[in-house]
């Protein structure tokens, strides 16, 4: 892959160190079962001669319940109190005007995963230590086999559609920079119960196994920058329990993970025609870290896996949006499948900004036909500012539409990706750089092709009155985890040994957990805080009436409008929701978008008249470095964009005339680049053309050899029409087989392919059936189901499609199909 090296020789440290008051960030976490208790520590130091007001914007997971904010300066400790946001802001301002010190922690109301810390009037030469503590649920991923712990570290530059460009977060003027003087330390303890392995796909880590009850995890290297989220994957033992119960005085948590059998019973074999609409981010921010390459991989697997005769469309979006088909959907047939594959191979990050609202508004105006269910697959890095507006729109589509959202890159907007899925009963997944996209796509597609369990009810048998949180259970899929909380009206109530909780739908009982030994008793308030946070999130994401796209059944005459019920949310409805959020926040002492932590440090005979503002710069993630040009900190965007439109000779010439140098980076087996990149080779196919590679003055000999290796890389098994050599790695073989499947489920393979796959010649199998296409399809099915069973998430949908078509070709004789597959299986 050709990688552009930017020449920063004329670009010194973007922000002088004496102007950056934040010196160090550390993260301490304790993970037990379903939750994490995290403390983030930040050290601010004023190295200037005047007092400063330090402002720092940083991310925390949206579902985090922040319960503590403490500042330490000299020998004093200031424990902040939680108050309504406006009251806290007034107290902060008043304290500074009176010459005191003040410390304020706020959550952004527009982007729920963005927080702002304000350190007011830090005296010259002084140091302040900030501690922020929170608890958070952990996501269950990869069909329930792993728990994923995420610490977001940077806020991606967000596109503001009102300004048509990038805006600083939370109304500040904070700058994005390539490198900052502050770094992060990480220390995490994970309880060993039901855990088989701990790993990280984001950072090198070292694990201390010597402790009896916990694994201790730290970074393996010093001076780690905050340029990517911290990801810790905790693999569970195979026989981990389906139901978990945790108890503390006044609160109970029950976790339920349904099996495929549970879902099948709840679905009652109902069938419905699906529409599949792929909304693909092609904005400029998608070009780095191979994000657009991941999209191409994902789209190819999606297209190969679609059921025949379903309806689909592909919508590219950036500053504008473009649909593959002019109508809202087109039938999935051979001709349309070819058009879609051709578009997929040519996808580029060339549409400018990130106007996600527009394509979603177009879809909202064109509801699916009666009897159809719409599944929207959104692939984006989520770098937008109007998150709430987008989510509010999607809530109006929940009766007919589910959104399956993919967050790509080092720092996607987690509140957007999660919020869209939650608001529409869909699912979300985050795909960091340098990982394989296939498994994630396969999982999401399986979810989209199955019905989820809805209308779940919880019956608490606890011998006291409780509030269930959330009040309405969200839908759940097979191997997903559903967490329900109960808050006793008496917060000191202790549950007895006869307590239990039941989960059921109107027609089926899903599970029961009995509290027969009072397991995992805790007294630190974790469960109550998580329950209150669940109630707050439910209120934030609750569906208020919307006037967008509504079909009024009454008269259309304007003179009658005052007699018809309004569908626009009233001020009273919004204020009632806000008031309830504030009440929950203050009662359980957890931060919300409408409350803030405020701490005041009383000072005697002090003045803040000469105080100066210092906004801590935000280190940009590795996949967003190209956006630094928007702040006029460097100017490499013009030659970069020119590369898309020129021929290879012109491309070489433009590179020679600029301050860019070029080398190559090969891909690993998963198809992800081993190094950070400005371009990816599958985006610019000409990069591997001999005339470009022959121009050796553009790169050194080592890079040249890497470039030649790239042309034969397994990554291209998905992108190219056909390769000369048979792949070796199992995942690459599966990718190759998927890429060779026709739209109807059969395979475009020849005798040489079959011999490579089975070790036997094709004629050995033709005695089983005289139709060569049937035999080849059956061989591939058996190969995938036997040799590549561990990769079933990747190939499940394509095999289902192939089986269905074979059954049709065999006159729906299931016994004949089973016999054919069994005879071929015996040959393996």
UniProtKB/TrEMBL annotation:
<feature type="compositionally biased region" description="Polar residues">
    <location>
        <begin position="548"/>
        <end position="569"/>
    </location>
</feature>
<feature type="region of interest" description="Disordered">
    <location>
        <begin position="548"/>
        <end position="574"/>
    </location>
</feature>
<dbReference type="Pfam" id="PF08487">
    <property type="entry name" value="VIT"/>
</dbReference>
<feature type="domain" description="VWFA">
    <location>
        <begin position="275"/>
        <end position="449"/>
    </location>
</feature>
<dbReference type="InterPro" id="IPR036465">
    <property type="entry name" value="vWFA_dom_sf"/>
</dbReference>
<dbReference type="Pfam" id="PF13768">
    <property type="entry name" value="VWA_3"/>
</dbReference>
<feature type="coiled-coil region">
    <location>
        <begin position="71"/>
        <end position="98"/>
    </location>
</feature>
<feature type="domain" description="VIT">
    <location>
        <begin position="6"/>
        <end position="136"/>
    </location>
</feature>
<protein>
    <recommendedName>
        <fullName>von Willebrand factor A domain-containing protein 5A</fullName>
    </recommendedName>
</protein>
<dbReference type="InterPro" id="IPR002035">
    <property type="entry name" value="VWF_A"/>
</dbReference>
<keyword id="KW-0175">Coiled coil</keyword>
<dbReference type="InterPro" id="IPR013694">
    <property type="entry name" value="VIT"/>
</dbReference>
């Amino acid at each position: 892959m050709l990688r552009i090296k930017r020449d920063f020789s004329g670009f010194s440290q973007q922000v002088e160190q004496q102007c950056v008051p934040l010196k160090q960030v550390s993260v301490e976490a304790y993970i037990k079962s379903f939750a994490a208790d995290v403390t983030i520590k930040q050290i601010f130091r004023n190295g200037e001669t005047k007092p400063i007001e330090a402002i720092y914007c940083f991310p925390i997971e949206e579902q985090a319940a922040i319960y503590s904010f403490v500042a330490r300066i000299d020998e004093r400790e200031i424990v902040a109190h939680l108050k309504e946001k406006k009251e806290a802001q007034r107290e902060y301002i008043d304290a500074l005007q009176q010459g005191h010190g003040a410390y304020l922690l706020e959550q952004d109301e527009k982007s729920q995963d963005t927080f702002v810390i304000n350190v007011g009037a830090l005296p010259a030469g002084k140091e302040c230590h900030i501690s922020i503590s929170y608890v958070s649920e952990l996501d269950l991923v990869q069909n329930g086999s792993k728990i994923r712990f995420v610490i977001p570290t940077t806020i991606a530059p967000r596109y503001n559609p009102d300004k048509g460009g990038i805006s600083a977060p939370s109304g500040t003027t904070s700058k994005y920079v390539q490198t900052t003087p502050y770094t992060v330390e990480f220390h995490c303890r994970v309880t060993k119960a039901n855990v088989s392995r701990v790993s990280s796909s984001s950072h090198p880590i070292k694990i201390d196994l010597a402790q009896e009850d916990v694994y201790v995890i730290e970074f393996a290297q010093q001076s780690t920058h905050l340029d990517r989220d911290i990801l810790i994957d905790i693999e569970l033992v195979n026989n981990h329990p389906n139901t978990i119960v945790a108890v503390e005085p006044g609160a109970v948590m029950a976790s339920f993970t349904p099996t495929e059998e549970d879902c099948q019973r709840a679905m009652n074999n109902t069938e419905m025609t699906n529409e599949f609409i792929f909304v693909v981010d092609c904005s400029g921010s998608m070009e780095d870290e191979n994000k657009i390459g991941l999209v191409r991989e994902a789209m190819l697997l999606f297209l190969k896996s679609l059921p025949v005769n379903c309806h689909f469309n592909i919508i590219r979006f950036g500053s504008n949006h473009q649909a593959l088909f002019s109508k809202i959907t087109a039938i999935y047939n051979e001709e349309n499948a070819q058009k879609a594959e051709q578009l997929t191979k040519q996808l580029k990050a060339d549409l400018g900004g990130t106007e996600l609202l527009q394509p979603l508004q177009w879809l909202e105006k064109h509801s699916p036909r009666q009897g159809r269910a719409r599944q929207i697959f959104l692939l984006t890095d989520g770098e937008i500012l109007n998150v709430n507006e987008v989510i509010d729109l999607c809530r109006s589509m929940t009766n007919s539409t589910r959104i399956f959202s993919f967050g790509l890159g080092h720092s996607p907007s987690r509140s957007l990706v999660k919020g869209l899925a939650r608001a529409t009963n869909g699912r979300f997944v985050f795909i960091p750089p340098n990982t394989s996209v296939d498994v994630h796509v396969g999982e999401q597609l399986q979810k989209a092709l199955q019905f989820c369990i809805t209308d779940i009810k919880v019956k608490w048998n606890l011998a006291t009155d409780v509030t269930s949180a959330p009040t309405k259970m969200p839908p759940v899929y097979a191997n997903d985890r559903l967490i329900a909380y109960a808050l006793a009206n008496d917060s000191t109530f202790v549950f007895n040994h006869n307590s239990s909780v039941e989960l059921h739908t109107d027609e089926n009982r899903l599970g029961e957990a009995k509290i027969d030994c009072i397991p995992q008793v805790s007294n630190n308030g974790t469960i109550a805080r998580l329950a209150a946070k669940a109630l707050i999130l439910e209120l934030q994401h609750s569906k208020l009436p919307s006037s967008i796209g509504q079909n009024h059944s009454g008269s259309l005459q304007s003179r009658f409008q005052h007699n018809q019920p309004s569908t626009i949310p009233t001020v009273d409805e919004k204020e009632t929701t806000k008031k309830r959020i504030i009440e929950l926040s203050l009662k359980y002492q957890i931060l919300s978008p409408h409350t803030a932590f405020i701490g005041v440090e009383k000072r005697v005979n002090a003045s803040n008249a000469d105080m100066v503002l210092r906004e801590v710069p935000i280190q940009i993630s590795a996949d967003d470095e190209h956006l630094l040009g928007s702040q006029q900190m460097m100017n490499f965007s013009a030659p970069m964009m020119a590369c898309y439109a020129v021929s290879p000779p012109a491309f070489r010439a433009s590179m020679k005339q600029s301050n860019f140098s070029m080398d190559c980076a090969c891909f690993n087996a998963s198809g992800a680049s081993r190094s950070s990149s400005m371009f990816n080779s599958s985006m610019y196919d000409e990069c591997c053309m001999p005339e470009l590679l022959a121009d050796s003055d553009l790169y050194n000999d080592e890079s040249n050899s890497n470039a030649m290796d790239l042309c034969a890389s397994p990554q291209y098994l998905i992108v190219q029409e056909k390769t000369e050599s048979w792949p070796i790695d199992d995942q690459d073989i599966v990718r190759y087989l998927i890429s060779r499947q026709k739209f109807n489920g059969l395979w475009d393979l020849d005798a040489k392919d079959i011999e490579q796959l089975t070790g036997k010649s094709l004629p050995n199998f033709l005695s089983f059936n005289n139709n060569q296409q049937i035999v080849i399809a059956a061989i591939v099915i058996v190969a995938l189901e036997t040799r590549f069973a561990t990769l079933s998430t990747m190939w499940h949908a394509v095999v289902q499609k192939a089986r269905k078509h074979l059954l049709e070709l065999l006159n729906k004789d299931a016994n004949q199909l089973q016999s054919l597959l069994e005879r071929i299986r015996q040959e393996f």
